Structures are given as C-alpha cells and as structure tokens.
Amino acid sequence: MAGRKVYRNKVSARRKNRKAALIVLVVIIILAAVVFIGYSIANPILDFIEDRKLGSHDTTEPWTPPVYKDETDKITDETTEKSGKNQDDDKKPNNTPSTLQFSAYELPVTALENSETLKNALIDAKNDGYTAVVVTLKAKGGAIYYKTQNAMALSDETAVKGTMSLEQIASMVVASGLKPIASLNLLEDNNRYGANRDGAYHFQSDNSTWLDNSVANGGKPWLSPFDVKTQNYIAALSTEISMAGFETVICDGLTFPAFRNSDLSYIGSIVQNANRYEALFNVVNIVKSSVKPDTNLIVKTSAADIINNTCEVFKPDLLSDCTVLVYYSPADFSKTVVINNQEIVLADLTAFDRTNVIFTEIAKKAGDNINIIPMVNNDSLNQSDFSDTLTCLLELGYDAYVIK
C-alpha cells in the first residue's frame, strides 16, 4: 500500500526563499534610505565647502555686509524707493559724509557747568555723527565759561561763570574723539571791568563811559577795539586758550554797537571814520599773533549782514588768509531780499531754494580767495527744512559746516 506523499521539504524551502527575498528587500530599502539621507546632508555641505573655496554667493539674493554704528549710508532716490522711506522721516541729517572735512556742533554753554554735563554733551554729539564741537569759552555779553586767572576778567564779579580749566575742557573733547574748536566773542562784551569800566567806549569830551542805553533802562558798556586794555585782554585770553590745546579759534563778535547819531558825535572821530573797520581787523591780527603759529583762525560773520551789505568785517581782500564762518538763520531775513537789483520773495521759496539763493550770492561776494564754512541755526528750522538746508549746502560744495 503506497504511503501518503509528504510535501514538508517543498513548503519549508518556499518559506525560506520568501524570507530571504524579504530580507533582501528590507536591506535594499534601508540602503536606499541611507543613500538618500546621506546625499541630502552631504550635498549642502559639499556646496558650502565649494562656495568657501570659490568665494561665491547665491546670485539670486546678493550678500549684504552688516552695517555698524559708525557707518553712514548715503540716501539716494533708489534706496528711498526700495525702502519706502522718505528723507523727511529721518530725525537727524547724515552728519558724516565722506567728503566732509568736519561737521561740528556748537555745544550749549550749559554743557560747561561741570565735567559730567560736558561728558554727556560730548557723548550726544558723537552719537549724532558730528566730528567736532564748538566750545563757547567767551559768549556774547562777556560771560567766560572756563576758570581763568586773568586779572581783567576777574575785575568784574560776574564775568567768570566756568569752574573747569581750559586744559580739562580741551582734553575731554579730544578724549571723546572729537575736534575741539574754541569760540571767543571778542567785542560784544557788556561787563564792567575795573572801577573805570576798562576797555569800554568813552565820550571824547570828559572820558566818561558810553552806555548803549540810559542807566535807568539798563544801559551797558561795550568793549572798544580802539582801547589798549581791550586789545591786551583779547591777546591774553587768546594765548591761554591756544596754549590749552585748542588748535582752532573762532573770532566772534567783531562788530560795533548800533550807535545813534548822537553817540557818534559824543564818542568822536574814531567811530565816525569810514575806515573804522580797520580796528576790527586789528583785533583779528592781535588774536593771530597771540595764538600758536599753527592755529586755525576763523572769523565769524552773519549771512544776513553780508546780503544786506552791513557787515563791516566782510572785506574779501583783507580776509584772503582767513576762513570765514557764515552764520545763517532764516529768521534774520525779512520776507524779501534784493540781489542784483532784483527783489526775491524768500517767503515763497522752499528751504532748499532759500539756502541756494543766499549762499550763491555770498559766494559771489566772497570771490575765490575766501574759504567759507556755513553755520546753520537749527532752532529756526523744522526738521524737514533743516535737512533740506544741509542738503543744499553739501550740493553747493561746502566740505565743512557747524550746527548751532
């Protein structure tokens, strides 16, 4: 009797084959996964290494270097359009264009109260992008904002306001990374020096002191450029300021009082003479001979006085070896000015065009021999007009300016 066929070996073999195939498939899947993941990771690394070797960057999105605090960007129409930002949105102008020799800020006299107030003022000026500061050491009216031992200065109990030495002030400015510029108001000085009001204008008849008003109305004396004591005083102050480290000195207040006709008669020929302006230039020469030889001397004038032909110290032939600081405040001008026999209504012009009219005319009057630095009174302008005024001055080619 034939026995029953047994298929165990075939079934077992089939199972083994299936198992082997499954293992092979799993291995293939795993290898494929490893290759895919490895390629995904390796490719960026290889690209990065290749980029490092070639110094290349993705051309679809150019690399932009980081901008640091001490860098400034010139705003152009293109960048304004891309950013959607208007120039008027900026709170401060660009104070450090690469073409500038310097941009200076005139510190308020309150900055010289003590070392802490000066330090804070210097930090603010530095952060605002200025490269220099104007330090008013002797202000209009005659107040002195540093500790001086000058005998004439000390003869008026109220003249000396400052408590810091010149050396301390100059060294703090230099340490802050800013250029120190000293400003001296030489003649608009109403202090009562000495028992006899030394240096003042005197009446020709009895040598009594001339005052700019009656005593009852608070009349004040002025320093006279003709007086020897005034000249010696200016020389002494100029010397100590220069020796303290101020390499640039602004001569401010080079003017005569607004004399009445009667005043001219009482004081006499020295103020009646058509050439009295020579006394102002004599003062400038006194300062020049009193400071160090390498000191930069700047004569300050008013834009309004130049345009109106009332500035007695603006004589291009006599200023050929000086730099002239022209103070510009739109508030000093009337609504109209006459230039080349043509009346121009300043009130109808933009801030840019007003500035262009005024400084183009000043440049014509100055000729080619005078280096002019504009000084803008920011208090008389809103932010937009201030920015437009600066833009105009830079486009006119001025390579330095002062902001008050």
Low-confidence spans: pLDDT under 50, at least 5 residues?
A: 1-16, 44-98
Helix content: 25-40%
Question: Judging from the principal axes of the Cα atoms, what is the shape?
Answer: globular
Q: Whole-Å distance between the termini?
A: 129 Å
Rounded to the nearest angstrom, the radius of gyration is 37 Å
Q: Averaging pLDDT over every residue, what do you get? A: 82
Trace the largest sheet across and list its strands. Answer: 1-2-3-4-5-6-9-10
- Number of helices, where a helix is a run of at least 4 consecutive DSSP H or I residues: 12
How many DSSP-defined strands?
10
Structural class: alpha/beta
Question: The biggest beta sheet, please?
Answer: 8 strands, parallel, barrel
Strand content: 5-15%
Order of helices and strands: HHEHEHHEHEHHHEHEEEHEHE
Q: Explain this structure to me?
A:
With 404 residues, this protein is an alpha/beta fold. It has twelve helices and ten strands. The strands form two sheets. Strands 1-2-3-4-5-6-9-10 form an eight-stranded parallel beta barrel, surrounded by five helices. The chain has a two-stranded antiparallel sheet with strand order 7-8. Helix 12 links the parallel strand 9 and strand 10. The chain is globular. The N and C termini lie far apart (129 Å). The N terminus is likely disordered.
